[in-house]
Amino acid sequence: MRAGKRSRTPYWLRFSLTLLSLGGITSAFVLVVLPRRFVLQAGLVESGVTFPAHAPPFRPPRSGPVVRPAPGATREEITLGPAQVFWNDAVPLLEAGLYERALPLFEEYLAEYPADWDVLREYAATLARAGRTLEAEAVYNRLLAVADDPTIVRELARSKRDRGDFAAALALYEQLIASHPEDLELQLELARTLLWAQRYRAARRIYRNLVRYNPEDYDLRLELAQVLYWDDDPLAAYLVLRDLPDGAEESHEGMELRLQLDSLLLAAMPPGLSPLDRARRAAAQQDLVQAEALYRRVLATQPMDPGLWLEWIDFLQYHVEDLAAARRALLQLQALRPLEPDERFRLAQLHAWTGNELEAQRGLEDLVRDQPQRADAWALLGDLYQWSGSRLAARDAYQRALISARDNAQALAGLDTLYAQTYRAIADYEDRSVGTRLLLFRDSDDFSRIDVTAEAAFLRRATALVVRAGYRRMDGIRLQGQAEADRGPFAALELAHWWRLGTVRASLTAGIEQLDAFGTQP
User: Fold this and answer.
1) Cβ(479)–Cβ(489) below 8 Å
2) What are the tens digits of pLDDT across the range 316-333?
3) CA-CA distance, 289 to 279, in Å (whole number)?
4) Cα→Cα distances 357→348, 372, 382, 451, Å
């Protein structure tokens, strides 16, 4: 290939000259050009003084004498407008809740300025706060005659609702919702107005829609339970309360509703049995709602009984099939006393089944550290490692489980799944296929290469065999300056194997090519 004409000047000399030239140019630019351009010609003073100096390098500007105001001179007072004077007098009364004393100020001002709509709106709100709702509604209607303001319509609807005119209030609320269907606060006001109007069936529909949009609003779900109870549907109300997390219904209204529902649901139970026996009987008869109410009542009277807590956990897990509630109950039992190994494993299972894989993994790691021969814990830990993508850790956990119990079905199934996942990942990487490829390369030194290749890849589990054959052409310039073109066929064979579950790839490649100018090159 051609390297070009070499210079007779030594390389170190050329490099040194280039370095000195760049350093000199940079020094001149920094020491001469920049100070003159941006300091001396910018209207600044040259800082060429050697300190300590006998005189300052610049003179401070002189300021004129300060003129003092004449004795007894007063500033000109600013005259306030009538609206400012009114608000200065009315706001303190409104903030203090003295609405009756503020109303004469409104009436006096509006008698002189009846077109001040802001004051007129606040006058209507003050009338409503003072309990004079009919007069407030008259003012609201006067405002609506001028402009159709949704805020005023809403205030008028609230006033009619508070006065007990539910039909007119509901009509106004429906008018507002028709134009603002996305306003959830407005829908809540409509639902509460329906509730006060004792139209429970319509109210419960709106409450369910609001709960669907706000599932974490426990106060809203408590209101839904209250509406269902008043609509003579205690079972649905109890189910809503049951879905609340522990402690969410600890308000006075929630506890009172819980007691009322318990009384209704327990009234049909036969007398003569203890509450715990009645709970067990209801659970055996698949009357889960009554059984849950009874168990809760017994737990409220015996909160420190671990055996009762275990029975309650069994009921939640195996009868109600509420795994999250069973997990919370088992955590409460853990607060009473340390859990036994089987209970610790059960808690890890519930963590894993309810989406708390990290907590489950931590609990199982602690458990197998204390009991390394526990096969079921190792197998579940292997599943958790596999779900998180840690294939090597999962394999080690499954193997530890099989050491303790050779026929552990969970570990055997986990290993099969793990190897299947590994083989799928290897297959995606190796890209088993038969086809052709074209390679074209060219650089600025007149070198070019063209490869036309046929390739076939075969894969069996973790072993891959790749066969390549094709034709290659290379064009370039020799060092002596002559043009040269080499061409000929080539073939290659690659044997690869994946180790450590598809994390390490080792391969051996052998090939041969026939080029015209150089002969056969292995």
Assistant:
1) no
2) 999 989 999 999 999 999
3) 10
4) 8, 20, 12, 51
Q: Which CATH number fits domain 82-354: 1.20.1050.10, 3.40.50.720, 1.25.40.10, 1.10.287.690?
A: 1.25.40.10
The sheet carrying 448-460 orders its strands as: 434-442, 448-460, 463-477, 483-499, 504-515, 519-521
Q: Is the pTM of this model over 0.85?
A: no
> What is the C-alpha radius of gyration for the chain, rounded to an integer number of angstroms?
44
Instruction: Give how far Cα 135 sits from Cα of 106, 126, 165, 300, Å.
Output: 13, 10, 15, 52
Name 502's Cβ contacts closer than 8 Å, sequence gap at least 6. Answer: 391, 422, 423, 425, 426, 429, 462
Q: Are strands 463-477 and 448-460 parallel, antiparallel or unpaired?
A: antiparallel
Instruction: Say which residues have a Cβ less than 8 Å from residue 172's Cβ, sequence separation at least 6.
Output: 153, 154, 156, 157, 160
Q: pLDDT tens digits for 255-290? A: 566 655 655 555 555 555 788 888 888 888 888 888
Q: How far apart are CA 278 and CA 296, in angstroms?
A: 12
Q: Three-state DSSP class for 91?
A: helix
Q: Which of 330, 379, 381 is nearest to 357 (CA)?
A: 381
Tokens of 313: 């956990």
Please tell me what DSSP assigns to residue 479: T
* Second-level CATH architecture of 355-430: Alpha Horseshoe (1.25)
Which phi-psi region, left, alpha or beta, contains residue 76 (left: φ > 0; alpha: ψ -120 to 50)?
A: beta
Helix (H, G, I), strand (E, B) or coil at 374: coil
Identical fold, 82-354 and 355-430: yes
Task: For 473, list phi and psi in degrees, rounded to 5.
Answer: -135, 130
How is residue 4 annotated by DSSP?
-
Helix residue ranges per DSSP H, 431-513: none
For residues 461 and 446, what is the distance between their CA atoms, to the nearest angstrom? Answer: 45
3-state secondary structure of 319: helix
* Alpha helix (H) residue ranges in 130-274: 133-146, 150-163, 166-179, 184-196, 200-213, 218-230, 234-242, 252-266
Q: For residue 461, which phi and psi values (nearest 5 degrees)?
A: 55, -110
CA distances from 209 to 41, 204, 379 (A): 74, 9, 43
Q: Is residue 357 scored above 90 in pLDDT?
A: yes
The DSSP 8-state label assigned to residue 8 in this structure reads S
Every domain of the chain and the residues it spans = 82-354, 355-430, 432-521
